Amino acid sequence: MSLYGKMMDLFDLSFEMQASAEGVSIQDIQNKYNVSRRTAERMLEALHDYFQQMEEVDTGERTKRWRIPSRSLNGFISLSAEELSVFKTATDLLQRYSTAENARLLSTVELKIRNFIKPEHRNRITVDADELTQTEGLVCYPGPKITIAPEILDKIRQAILSCHQIKMKYRYKNKTETTETTLIPYGFLYGQRDHFLVARHTDANDDGKPRTYSLPNILSVEILPDTFNIDGFSLNEYAAESFGSWHEAPVDVEWLFSKNVADEVKHFVFHPKQEMRENADGSITVKFHAGGKKEMDWFLYTWGNDVKVIKPKKA
What residue spans of 134-261 are helical by DSSP H? Predict the structure, then answer.
């Protein structure tokens, strides 16, 4: 790596150490920058020589961790027009996917970040950023826009952060009657066609497995005084069990794409745990393990006759 690259890694590491509340370990540095332990130690020593205020964090663990106190690097922060313009594009994307509350929060973050820009540079950078934003466009997709009450999302977020159970009034699809249930909320899954709350019933007679609830069908939410313990549930692992946001029992999936679309297929990540193989005839085989067969059908329809479903076999 060039001297310039090493210097940029040190800058990057210093900002990470300031942003991290629990601090950064030697192993963290090795993993992020793909360096040996000795190189990671030298990087840490170099930063300590420059930032004497670097401190060791007492986490109660055997692994040592260090951080740089907040605001130590504020004078070094510099934002480009390109970096600033990404916020507006991301905000528009969140709006497009009917996550208006997240879009509002991101806009607030953007405003705060703009205030970090030095006054003598602020006007030029913000004007350039606004001009760059005009060059970014989002493709519209057909279909109804999902409407979710922001107060419902806000209550669920509060419950998740404070580890409190919720009582939810819910209307199932194609049904007029409503049900009321007590849940342990885990998080949200956002899809193109629908957005979901992932939660588990507190009812002892239930199977104890997390379930998905369509956010637009949640009529009201009440935060309960009862708390819950984090039980090791991983939202990322749960999401990886499905193709799309609809959750069902995972199955072995195998698709065969013709050589006509092979170059295009190579640019796709159909699933985070996929296996992709180029065959002798130029075709591409993609394998993974997930549920969501209906969403797979919707997606594969756009590939026409250039894809064949090997697995799962149709019943």
Answer: 150-162, 235-240
pLDDT-derived band at 12 (thresholds 50, 70, 90) equals: confident
- Please tell me the distance from the alpha carbon of residue 170 to that of residue 2, in angstroms, as a whole number: 58
What distance in Å separates the CA atoms of residue 195 and residue 98, rounded to the nearest whole number?
A: 9
- The pTM for the full model equals 0.52
Three-state DSSP state, 61: coil
Phi, psi of 218 (to 5 degrees): -85, 120
Vertex 11 angle, CA 8 and 12, to 5°: 85
> Structural domains in the chain?
3-76 (1.10.10.10), 81-133 (no CATH), 161-240 (2.30.30), 251-311 (3.30.70.240)
For 26-55, the three-class secondary structure string (H helix, E strand, C coil) is HHHHHHHHCCCHHHHHHHHHHHHHHCCCCE
Which residue in 191, 180, 231 sits closest to 210, CA to CA?
Answer: 231
What is the C-alpha separation between 256 and 254, in angstroms, rounded? 7
Residue 200 to residues 168, 185, 210, 211, 221, Cα–Cα distance (Å) = 12, 7, 4, 6, 15
Residue 59: both structure tokens together: 């986490």
Phi and psi, residue 213, nearest 5°: -130, 125
Per-residue pLDDT tens over the stretch 151-192: 888 888 888 888 899 999 998 876 778 889 999 998 888 766
Q: What is the pLDDT of residue 235?
A: 82
Question: What count of Cα atoms within 13 Å lies in the side-chain half-sphere of residue 296?
Answer: 28
Sign of CA dihedral 182, 184, 190, 193: negative
CA atoms within 13 A on the CB side of 205: 1
CA 110 to chain centre: 18
Non-local CB neighbours of 99 within 8 Å, separated by 6+ positions: 148, 190, 195
What are the DSSP E strand ranges found in the chain? 55-57, 65-67, 164-171, 178-190, 195-201, 211-214, 218-227, 251-257, 275-278, 284-290, 307-311
Q: List beta partners, residue 254.
A: 287, 311
Give 198's strand partners: 187, 212
